[in-house]
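Exercise (ungraded).
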Amino acid sequence: MIERLGRKTVDAIKAVGGFGHFVGDLARAVPDVAVWGRLTLVQMRRVGVDSLPVALFIAAFTGVVLALQASYTFTGTVPLYFVGTLVGKTMMLELGPVLAGLALAGRVGASMAAELGTMKVTEQVDALETLAYDPQSFLVLPRVLAGTTMFPVIVALAILTGIVTGWIASLVLLDLSTQEFLKGLKLFYRFKDTWFGLFKSATFGCTITLVGCVVGLSTRGGAEGVGRSTTRAVVYSAVLLLVLDAFWALVLLR
Amino acid sequence: MIEFQDLRKAFDGRPVLDGFTLRVQDGETTVIIGYSGTGKSVALKHVVGLLQPDAGDVIVDGRAVSTLDRAALTALRREIGFVFQFAALFDSMSVFDNVALGLRRRDLSDDEIAARVQEALALVDLTGAEERLPAELSGGMRKRVGIARAIALRPRYILYDEPTTGLDPVTSAVIDQLMVRTREHLRVTGIVVTHDMRSAYTVGDRIAMLYEGKIRQVGTVAQIQETEDPVVRQFIEGRPT
Amino acid sequence: MKRENEFAVGVVVIAAFAVVVAGALWLSGAHLGRTEAVYTARFRTVGGLGVGDPVVLRGVRVGRVEAIRLASGNWVEADLKIYAGTQPPPRPAVIAASASLFGEWAASLVALDQLPNDPNIKQAITEAQAAGSGKWPGATLPDIGQLTAQASRIATDIATVSSRIQTAFDSEAVIELRRSIKDFGQVADKLVRVTNDQADVLGSVGSNLRQGSDVLAKAATNFQTTLGRVDSATNQGQLATILNNSSATSANLKSASQDFRDLLDAAHKNQESLVRVLVSADSVMSRISNRSGTLGLLVSDSTLYRETTLTMIQLRQLLSDIQANPRKYFSFSVF
């Protein structure tokens, strides 16, 4: 029993050490711009541009729901222009980054884990190494960089979408004027609202892609292993994302 | 010269290589034969540093592989072409890009790269397949692209991991011919891991039998064919017991 | 393929960048004008004023609060950024006040000679001005929470006073009472007239307003009835009747003050009626105050006298506050 506990602890410490090693290798791959530069653009396209429809779709409906729920809660107690405040604040601070992050954890994290997992089990990663490429700079760095840079981009557009649909919903479904919605939106706005959400989403992008790559590259055992890795990548990145979300709220919003 | 010196490697406590020692002379092709799962491929991956030995080492031209730093290992890998069991082509790249990938790591102009790719593809009879994707190729063609990718780098050594596994006899024979042609054209030293005896006899100058983590017997093709060792005899004759 | 990547990524990144920059600027109300002038105002306290709050001139936004810092001599200095093209009043003063119930504050620019008629503000401005060095003098108005708390305190005091009246009525007071009642009667008449006028004027404004006016009318009428009864009793020299009636009278007075409290409640719901009611009430109280001797003789209990006076002083302070700055105080919109 104690022996098993001890072994688990050692395994956990080893896993942390392995991750640290991984990040160290990644940092060492940074000077290799010639390799990752061009590939990063491809990944930015895949991570950023191709994920845009999903993220915007989610944000659009979130905005509508937020507006309706806010009016449901506020009616009779709080002036309705606070619908604008709630939609804006919630989209910028929380739902924009987190919902887009969770959606992309599924889309991006899973696809990276599956892709790298397949490359691993079919020896493509080994082949890369024998061709004198560092898998970190060829595979991991472009993905992590693309995730870190493109997530805020996606989230910024998602926030805009959410606020616009929230505004349209207020206009069409609630008895709220544009002026009132905008008044509420601007009422308690601070620039921190903007950078907090975007900074958070950059860390989400980094986390999701890093987890996808680490899990993908540690895949073992054929197609089944790839399947396992894909699931693990999604679960790990979703959990980490929420933990990170709470962490930033604790550190930056107090 | 590649020397395996008392190489030991275990996976999850199960020893796979247990004192593997073998010397591969320059200019000759050595075939390592043995049962599936006895660690032939594992031995091969130690040569390019894809695996770290538990004990012992592989010495390539005086360099102990496991002790090399990153830059030295990269330099070593540039001298060695590795042909993977299932070719390990990059799915998202065309045949041309697959072959050119290794060349792009060197200071070559685009024209030189294109010329070298054409040359390598011509050697494996795949001229004209440049723009196809790996998924559109048959197993034999993929293997040939894999070989082209290795020889395009003009390596001093080529390591073949089960080059004919999973191929029909005719295609296998084509690959065998290709390996012979490669040796003659490029004067490269080769190690071939296989359990296909016909292939071993065709391409090998010497044959080594790996059994229970060690070399059971090493010899020329003729010596192996006439061996008295019952284990080796059983393997080369393919008898069930 | 590669060109396509570059284009798509570029479009998305530029779009997002534009959204972030434009959105942040727009939401924070930044003014992309030409040069903006920064002035410094000096306060004893800035109350709830914060960085980024609007600076308004006659109700129009003309800038924002750029910075707030503590300064030597127990002062607080606020930098006010005024947009280009705005002409501040020649001798400006700054009044920080809450703009709504939800904690938004604004700094209003007013000309020094057009200050609201409030002794506290005037004193604060004069003090800040005396500190010199070219900084704009500033003062802070209490926010609506303090005001309503004071109003409810006054209502309680009035209730106390009227309950004391019961014990205060004795025969010696009657003669003085007659005189004062005449004044009271006039006041009440005026009150009713004012109320009716206002009710007519405001008839179309809304039910809240009418409710406020109705309550006021009721209060005034009750008051008048009470006084009339007392008046007629003393006219006929029927002291006993007065004494008999005194408990009913004080009960009526009590209910009148209760009505006044209801009125205040109603007024909470409608700031304009509150202002008008209190303005009217002020004129009543002014008259009482002018004849404080009369009331003092009337009321043999000196405690009662003091409390009445105190109540009136408090009410007058409140009234002057509100009367002086009705727009500053009540520019919020109540839901």
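Further reading is listed at the end of the chapter. For now, observe: The longest strand of chain C covers residues 60-71. Chains C and B do not touch (no CB pair under 8 Å).
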